[in-house]
Predict the 3D structure of the following.
Amino acid sequence: MSKIFFVLNGPNLNMLGKREPGIYGGKTLADIEADCAAYAKDNGFSIDFRQSNHEGTLVDWLHEASEASAGVAINAGAYTHTSVALHDAIRAIGAPVVELHISNVHAREEFRHKSMIAPACKGVICGFGPHSYILALQALKNLTQ
Ligand code: CA2
């Protein structure tokens, strides 16, 4: 059976493509999911792509990923900058986790420069637009081969 990676998305990412195209581009989250699924298929693995606006749900999904996946790519949205709960959940699971962002958070407001989850992750990818998702999946593939 092929390897599965979870791709988890946090708050407001369901709004992609509908507002703020100058920062996040014109693709919807469904477009990004389709790109990730196509990349996964080309590379012999599969993805489980999810979005929630709720911190606890993301914690539950990280726990689930520990049993059900080979690794996690996470765009935790604004929870990146605030969530000790996500930091602890990432530390608690065995699967490798890659943090990703569409925008270059370091070129934006100062409150986006700090990631609560980065120290718990294998690495961080940001600033490449929706292609950041593909780069995160490529990193997971390399980490788990
Ligand atoms: O650049 C990223 O991927 C972010 O994780 C996006 C988050 C932001 O809080 C992070 O600092 C960086 C925001 C999620 C998307 O928010 C939208 C708001 C309005 C319209 C469309 C998307």
Q: What stands out?
A: Residues 102 and 131 are 8 Å apart (CA to CA). The chain has five helices and five strands. The helical segments are 21-24, 29-42, 55-68, 84-92, 131-143.
